[in-house]
Amino acid sequence: HKPRILSDWLKMTFNSDHVSITEVEEVILQTLLFAGFPRTIEALTVLRKLTPENTPPKNHQRFPSEKQGAITCKTIYGTKFDRLLVNMNRLHPDLTQWMLADGYGRVLSRTGLELKYREWAVLVALMVTGMVNQFKAHRRGMANVGWSEDDIIWLTNLFAFIIPQELKAEFSAIQTVQNADDGR
Question: Distances in Å between the alpha carbon of 71 and those of 2, 21, 85, 143?
Answer without folding.
Answer: 35, 27, 13, 16
